[in-house]
């Protein structure tokens, strides 16, 4: 029986724990009371009833696995192989090939039958591997659900209890390091904190409460602060919780269910190959029937007529197309893998070339997924701007820099000799002492001995403060202190408090001693109670910390009164930082928590990855839209989107990146009056998860047009967004790294997962895995996809011209009553042996630069265009003309001899090889093509020439193919005659390019908006110039006007 949900989803959040227990007890009848449930758990009598009513804690696929045939369980790869083989039998091109193979076997043409069998095996094997890998997504997902847990039943604590045996209403005990076994309502929380990044993608642990809260209907995961979700990790504290949902009804289970039901759409190439197969099958059938009827009416033997007709059928159907397409895509996969893009499904290589939209997750994809200290504000230097260089959990090259008064003039490092160091030391010493993160120096790194960034543990914001302290030159004082008390951060207090004393009796920071020396009467009384130098160190939200602050640190480390104007100034700076997407924490210290000394605030962010802005620019310049989908707040999402160039014009993105750039670069002269805050982004460019819920599904496709940032979204929203974009005709490449991205990754046309920091579930559900987690790799992959499609068109033009020529030549000979120019074995040799290697080598031809910069092709663009057909038909016409000319010249005696067919055969093959050379490009003439630019082509043609010479001059093969040796003069004549293909191609490309070339269209965005290549990124200080230029950061605007300066002077 499938599991169901006991209440309307979300309503349990508003109830108090005893209300939840009472509702649960009512579901179980009168067996257990609510009091029994909260203190003793379910009784054994209730379990069967609850399992029958709401199901077991089993994910999708687990029950099915138990019922699989024993053979498939022992050999799991066998089932997808057989099923995919049966699926291939439905394809029109494959059906035609199978028919031709059967006829060939009946007539003794085993060579052709073997070639077709190899093609079918390759295609089926590739499909089987793809299906087998897709099934692994469910297995990886199930592995994230804990196998055991701790539950309270019949008043007994059951450790290592099988999680799959849980039922709704079970009382689960949660502790640090555990994974939540089912969706649970927290009924008892002791500093319980849970990492929900596997579901939400956000890396901030969430404080859980047992109290009832008021939330909207269909709440987002992030708003349910008293619910613990399946698969999430408990990072701190402990608690108890009642199971609300099990199995597929959990948030985690819905992801699994969606993965099992989301169907992978066929790629545009697959659709075009299907269409081509149907058309070729129809045309070839009509042509073959006509030729057979004419042959019989003219008195030719039935067996000979059937033999030639079947040979022509094979010639008309490019059975090499599946092989060449597979080989081309496989070589593309190999090339991409060398550039850190691991492609799991071959058709995706080509699909990347027509991607029109990249919908990216924010955390871990566009950003580093490593919190970084960015900005500092202290009332000791209110007119100075402090900012950090470097990103992530690494101190190498990172510094804390300060600009002169009001941001003018040169910048300098903050060091122990700086006048700012005393105040900065007080700030970061407090941040370290009120901190539980651990960062160990990586001594084995080649970056530098002893730099931070080795083994680490702790919450992201605390890690950012430890790294920031190291950059500021403040040594971690914790080894010199003994912690005597800790009050962890909670959603109610919004701050963390630590009481510690110096081990040697002397504080690590001079400001701490000065604070104790100037303590108020309350503080002195507190000090008398503890003469060991103990102090309180507080970290938290500025609003909460400021309530207890009576003084602030000065430049000399002494304390000064903190009045309301000073607090207002701090809160104003806090708002400006928050508006720019920074997370702000405040630090304070003192002998008493009621009379603290304010040290300052630190703004932190999860910064964009290096090169993301350039990658977004390249995608936009190539006509690809980039969207952001995140569970974070609107302010943070918009700020990161501006930084990455997703929102705003190119010039806005350049300005934003300059404002946030690294200190490693220097600036350039220019106007800097604009700021990030000057970029106005309308509501039409952003949409929340709540907005998506309020929009009728049939109207969502219209509503998402123009939206570039989706924020506060749940996993179910991501798939809805992808589907809406697809309804608008977009080819969507979805990137992500978490479990919450899995369904959207699978539902998108191209799913792209991060290889380093991505979850196994995301990587299994995706089509492409970025081994280096570099967003820039997507740009390379899309460019490669564009090139591969045009290469496929090139070898298709070559194959069609060969097929058309063979079919047309036979048709003309039949219509005119001439003997057949080529026998069946020669036709099969041309079609299978000669077309194979040269055609496959065309698939790896270096792509024209214009193609890489062209806008994405439309998904419904035909693979066979008018220009391609004109090229194929014109080439085929010349091949037929030259071959029949030789054939007619050799028929002067009225009899068909071996020499006649050999001359005709050799002429056709040579024309075919010259045609292969000009098919390397749709725009470049033969003398513009680099002879050695495609080594694979040279090897393929060389092998074909060698094989042809063996057919003509090797005695045993002469009997098989009915040929005879030709003289040297005959060969020179044939080569010179066949080279006319080169001159025809030059004429087409030089004077009739509009007819024979598909053309390359620049991106509409590139036409509309001038987008030069981004310059080297710059910092916001102009310290390298003589007079200095003001740099305007959105959160560092103190002193922007005389009025503000006046207010600040009064406040201080």
UniProtKB/TrEMBL annotation:
Limits of the P-type ATPase A domain: 144-259
Its membrane topology: Multi-pass membrane protein
GO biological process, one term: monoatomic ion transport
Disordered, as annotated region: 662-695
Keywords, comma-separated and alphabetical: ATP-binding, Ion transport, Membrane, Nucleotide-binding, Translocase, Transmembrane, Transmembrane helix, Transport
SUPFAM superfamilies (alphabetical): Calcium ATPase, transduction domain A, Calcium ATPase, transmembrane domain M, HAD-like, Metal cation-transporting ATPase, ATP-binding domain N
Location relative to the cell: Membrane
Main localization category: membrane
Transmembrane segments: 114-132, 280-298, 310-334, 795-818, 868-888, 936-954, 966-984
A GO CC term attached to the entry: membrane
Cation-transporting P-type ATPase C-terminal domain ranges (all copies): 819-991
Compositional bias annotation for Low complexity: 662-684
Highest rank taxon of the organism: Eukaryota
GO molecular function: ATP binding; ATP hydrolysis activity
Protein's UniProt keywords contain Translocase: yes
Gene3D superfamilies reported for this sequence: Calcium-transporting ATPase, cytoplasmic domain N (3.40.1110.10), Calcium-transporting ATPase, cytoplasmic transduction domain A (2.70.150.10), Calcium-transporting ATPase, transmembrane domain (1.20.1110.10), HAD superfamily/HAD-like (3.40.50.1000)
Protein family per UniProt: Belongs to the cation transport ATPase (P-type) (TC 3.A.3) family.
PANTHER family named among the record's database cross-references: CALCIUM-TRANSPORTING ATPASE
Protein name: P-type Ca(2+) transporter
UniProt organism field: Cylindrotheca closterium
